Amino acid sequence: MSRRPYVRPMKRTWYMDHPFYRTYMIREATCVFDALYCINLFFGILQLSRGEDAWQGWLSFQANPLMILFTVVTLGMTLFHAVTYFDMTPRVLPQQIRKMVADNVVNKLMYAGLAAVSAIVLAAAVWF
Amino acid sequence: MSDKMINIEILRYNPESDEKPSYGKFEVPYLEEWSMLDALEYIKDELDSTLAYRWSCRMAVCGSCGMVINGTPKLGCETFLRDYKGTIKVEPLANFPIERDLVVDAEDFINKLESVKPYIINAMEKPVEEGVTKQTPKELSLYKQFSSCINCMLCYSACPQMGINPLFTGPAVIALGHRYNLDTRDDGYDERTEVIQGKNGVWSCTFVGYCSEVCPKNVDPAAAINQNKLQGAQDWALSFLMPRKGGK
Ligand code: SF4
Ligand code: FES
To answer: Which residues on adjacent β-strands are paired with residue B88?
Structure first.
């Protein structure tokens, strides 16, 4: 009897093999959309500093149907990330805290925090 | 014997004659209460006595019978044939070298298990006269979930990072280290830091989370790993404020 353990190579496309992995990969991919959107926003600020014409140009670029589509997809991706992230957060908390506060309470607190921050940002946008 | 039949495809590998693994097909008559383990037993007794697989308790406590069933890491003894239709695909646990058929080489896992020092390390060896060390139910509940691991290695099979970086300490071992770190009787935190926080420790994990999904004992190893990321970040930040462990 001779030993000859067989090592199976890892497939390059391993993440396609299971629904759980696919969801994980979508979650990871959300950052690409958010990064692109941040670049877009940064570009907007740059245009704002360049004067009226540049800013108007950026605004009309945002109204391009493709840009609207991109914005909607990014929003969807960001929400997906938030929901899955909020689901994971309670489990990451130190065990001592986790034993004191139920997972779903932490989860709801995360949503409350998101709502509060969104309200502040919206209010600031309306008033200033 | 019942007249219900099911097809089972098993990834076979004989190190003495096979260049690489390939599927073997079996048609198995089964009863309502049969588990995958019963089917494998039938195959070995009636169809092909060369089939190799591991089992012992047949009641989900020994952790020997881990295998990948239709793409999902499962215990053969608590997977029931009645829940499947058509053909069932059975493979050895992923991310382990195949020794023969469904038997994988677990040596690396055992070494990792030892490396995390899975026992109570008490820096303050108490003299016997002082009596037993007490632990309240509340203190016990802190680590209880992480002590339920049966070393079935399903979580290693579920973890893609394990395949990408085979040196990764992995879910069950980190969960076990965490179990002892959370134990009020233990003083071994510093001795486990290298394994848990080192190059192949928790930071190799990207929180795919599938390990916790497949765990038959609800250990939630993903939680153990990611709680340790928070702890590690905290230790790192504190080391600037209080460089007390600098000498080690
Ligand atoms: S943590 Fe769960 S899946 Fe992993 S070896 Fe232990 S019992 Fe098995
Ligand atoms: S035979 Fe013991 S866990 Fe399945």
So the answer is: B8
Q: Would the pTM of this model clear 0.80, i.e. be above it?
A: yes
Is residue B209 less than 8 Å (CB to CB) from chain A?
Answer: yes
Strand partners, B104: B98
Range B194-215 average pLDDT: 96
Please tell me the total number of residues recorded for chain B in this structure.
248
| CB A36 within 8 Å of CB A90 | no
**Runs of H (alpha helix) within B123-201:** 137-143, 154-158, 160-164, 171-181, 189-197
So where are chain A's domains? 15-77, 93-128
Q: Is A11 exposed, middle or buried (0-12, 13-18, 19+ CB in 10 A)?
A: exposed
SS3 B7: strand
User: CB of B60 closer than 6 A to ligand 2?
Assistant: yes
Residue position matching structure tokens 């391009």: A64
Sheet holding B72-75, edge to edge: B22-29, B5-12, B87-91, B66-69, B72-75
B109 touches chain A (CB under 8 A): no
ipTM value for the complex? 0.86
Pull the structure tokens for residue A44. Answer: 């907007």
The domain defined by A15-77 folds into 3 helical TM bundles of succinate and fumarate reductases (1.20.1300)
Residue type, B29: P
The H or E element that residue B91 is part of is strand B87-91
Which chain B residue has its CA at the smallest distance from A103's CA? B223
Count of all residues that appear for chain A in the document? 128
Give tens-digit pLDDT for B156-175: 999 999 999 999 999 999 99
Residue B55 beta carbon below 6 angstroms from any ligand 2 atom: yes
Question: pLDDT tens digits for A43-82?
Answer: 999 999 999 999 999 999 999 999 999 999 999 999 999 9
